Fold these 4 entries.
Entry 1:
Amino acid sequence: MTMQTIQANNYPIYFNETATEALNLHISNNKYSNIFIIVDSNTNEFCLPKLLPAIETDLNVEIIEFEAGEENKNIETCVEIWKVLTELGGDRKSLVLNLGGGVVTDLGGFVASTFKRGVDFIHIPTTLLSMVDASVGGKNGVDLGNLKNQIGVINVPSMVLIDTQYLETVPQNEMRSGLAEMLKHGLIYDKKYWEEFLDISTIDFDALDQLIYRSVEIKNEIVKQDPTEKNIRKALNFGHTLGHAIEGYFLESESKTTLLHGEAIAVGMILESFISWKKGLISKEEYIQIKSVLKSIYDDVIFEEEDIEPIMELLIHDKKNEYGSIQFALIEGIGKIKINQEVENELILEAFEDYKS
């Protein structure tokens, strides 16, 4: 079935068959000088062969590739790409297409937003995570060491093109990673949507398009109310305050296997649901339901005693902090959120203990 275009803040989100059409119309209606497609080593191999033949243009199209992986989402990679853009004749009238997962769209959006003080860019997300999360809301940026998304801008693309055919090339663990953000959207905003995931074995993946569509719709509804994250948009940080710290620690630590974003966020959601329960915001039954659903989908992450301290350290640098205090977005019943919640360290430690049990 055809999915309606979603209107975000100042840009449209097109789905499946309408996406290519919209892209070609956009290119022909704007006097661009040339087109650059930013890819990583994975999307260059698996997704570019699908995109390239679909672009109808006489303009010069250049491919800029960087090595896949969160560890390359940094300013050094940006510097390399800015240099290449300059060498290949990039100017104010260039168009940048970001073809890839969240790392590509985050970094590519930042590169385009800052090159020549900003050129037009279009996101073409190719993973489940980037479709339901990174593609909506105009956040672009890079990591600073192990501090996630510490450097960046909020700047919207000309459009976002979501084509679920790209998901055929995505490995299972990456699909699960994207699912975490969809589960989050249900927990913070739509109880009925959350309930569609209660038994993962019954999900009809032909219905995945509809689930993705609803997820994008939820994120967009939240972002439209609060584009610059002064208020309700903070709801989207549920699971991310602890999740980002865990993800950053596992990325930097020599002895740890790097976690996918969704794997870290799933742990963060369990921990922050525990905190919500202990603060009297959700019932014990709701907490147990959340914990068992998430643990049925994601493998347990092993935390040693010595891991907790450095994770707590990373919380201090979380960009959601204000005036030196750590701000959590907690759930108040499934489908509702309470923002700007301060949480004592003892309670965070207790949450880790409970997770391990």
Note: The chain has a mean pLDDT of 95.
Entry 2:
Amino acid sequence: MTPPEAPSAPLLADTVYRVLRRHIEARHLPEGLLLGEANIAKALSVSRTPARAALQRLADEGLLVPHAGRGLLVRHDDPAPQPLRMDLHEAGLSLVAADEDHLDSSTTADRLYPDIERAIASCMAFGRFWVNQTALASHFGISRTVAHDLLTRLEKVGVVSRDRNARWYVEPLTPAKAQEHYTLRALLEPEALLLAWPHMDKARIEASWQRLVAAIQAPAALDAAGFDQIERDLHVDLIHLCPNAQMVKVIQESQMPLIATHYTIERYSDSAQIGQSMLQHLSVLTPLMEQNPQRAAEALRYHLQQAAEVTIPRIANLPVLRPDQYPNYLLPER
């Protein structure tokens, strides 16, 4: 499970928020202009996650009001403005050089983050690694500043840490630490699911359910990206709708073992465990389709308990990685 946008989104979302707020406060965007994730993402060349976060922040501040359809409307004086559908640049959106530089830099980091998180997280269960920032920058053809930004994002979600000499390292995922994380998740994720239920979109649940059923019916066609999306559908896109931000933060940090573990599974092509995991996901999503969140929460707790029982013994018996199995910007501690 890779949550590619969640860790990186806050920095990029801040820029998107500042750009939109500046235009709204200066009345450069007309009243009633319809803003949505899609048209903002297209106009600013960002993903939908930072666009969504920025929209929510502006709505919370009263600068945008809900539209009866989808999206939000720019509000100046009219408490219920009429919707105006226009291309955002034609409506008045323009970027200064500083905006473009920050968006370009953030977008580069945003684009690379999933691959880097994937590569590093897949090594967590195999021991302690040092991260060479210069080698990371060289590997991806980016500046040390962007490399530092990426490592800082990884630090926020617990994938990497820094020692007293400011050297980056990957802390090993031990069986004991994995047990702690799974215990937290089994306690918090079902409760977060119940809190998130009123905020769930029926279409999103149905799309996740259909994607999962298709994968179960045709397992041979399921690739790493497809399995990654199935994990994200439940454990990120739905669970993270929980309005309790502190709960979501703790859950997100404790989901890191799942990332490491599933990439470990991916290395050894454990199709039986993947199939079992998908069936357990189905036992969560089906009650949500039937509007029974309590049964879904119970199924989610069982799923996490089973994942812990399978995963933790596996972590204790992993082989040493060969040099060709980890990127050149990682150095295993001897």
Note: The longest strand covers residues 64-66.
Entry 3:
Amino acid sequence: MLFPIARAFFLVLPVLVACSGKVDVDQTSTGTGGGQGGSGGAGGSGDCPAEPPVAGAPCDVPANQPCTFGKCCPDIFTCEAGSWVETLVACEPPLPCPASPPLDGAACAGPCGQTTPCTYTCEEGGASFTVTCGDDNLWHSDMPTLCQGAMTCGDMLQCLEGYVCVTKQAFGATYECAPDPCGPEPLACACAGAICGDGFACIQASGKEVLCECPACK
């Protein structure tokens, strides 16, 4: 059984400013958790602090100069009437780790939209390997070769030994890996049709591949 290990999560806060994933704030000069912001302007002369301030604490930063801390779901503070005010940000949780290992170089939702890194094993009790969703929106594996006995499924996944590649064709094609429903007998639609799911019919099943189509989508 394959168990992806998700090592990151986000807490969704009450919505005052809606966002999804990485947040870009339109501002003249902004501090971050790793550096200083700009200074000057009406209403204050200070810089954004290096660390998130405490709401209600005194401040001396221009009111039109928001200070953000964090990359993906940031804390945003503004200085109003001499005190720090925090703007709560509601962010969509990142996508979970794929159930099957993504291929090295396959597209991902970026480190703000995808739980990353993700850890997998080629076989139960075997050595683990890690796949990370990078800033280039691509998966990067510390084991770029396929696991022994695995097969490529579409251009996104590798299906491990004991799994088959399921292609679902509707208005486009999607791919997923599923446990072989026919083993140890040869793969056939008679025993593999159920893995196509509701609204799909098994058109072809052989080797380690199952092709499903949506009759109503034609």
Note: The longest strand covers residues 163-169.
Entry 4:
Amino acid sequence: MGERGQLAGAVALVTGGSRGIGAAIARHLGRAGADVAITYNTAADLASDVVAELTALGVRSVAVRAPATERGAVDAAVRTAAAELGGLDVLVNNAGIARYGPVADTGDEDVDDIIDVNIRAVFTGTRAALGVMRDGGRVITIGSNLADRVSSPGLALYTMSKSALVGFTRGLARDLGPRRITANLVQPGSTDTDMNPADGPGAAAQLGTSALGHYGTADDVAATVAHLAGPGGAHITGTVLTVDGGQNT
């Protein structure tokens, strides 16, 4: 991550920030001096733990419940975070879900959930954030390396949703250039979290595609996000950064 204090005075919002990659991102931004709001769905206890950690660092932090499947929930969380912490400088669209299986066996409810969380909430949450974000801000979205290369069957729906973020990010960068707000997409590969543990049943197959031969960590992804959020990311926009240990090489 960048130097301590490089984000002092900034306000950040990380969606899905109660655990895994989102919690790591929140911690990295807090250590850099930003005040950090996080959203969560059901893990109120984990969200409280993250807030406590950030508060102990000497920054302000709040947690807002915002189920991304509920339309308008993320938008409302953006407004709440900005009101409580005083504006917004960094939005990290991290919240996401996965649904796997053949297209022929995929139900409408799964399609709706994927679109609502992985696409709609990102779009509407970003739209809300732009109403309160200061010029020179950052929009950073977490996608997946599966948007670039489909490594196994059963990924069509999930890949569709993550591929949409590529076009959204590039278009957003053009829209926001006049305000000096950057927009970038970070695409993790196999990352050791409770959703995809490095000792899980599918780990061996995933490791077989890695150039480095091991899973990434949530901190690997968070460090990239923190760089984009800080001074080093000022001239990076409309870009896709893949953090996958060479899985897609």
Note: The two ends are 25 Å apart (CA to CA).
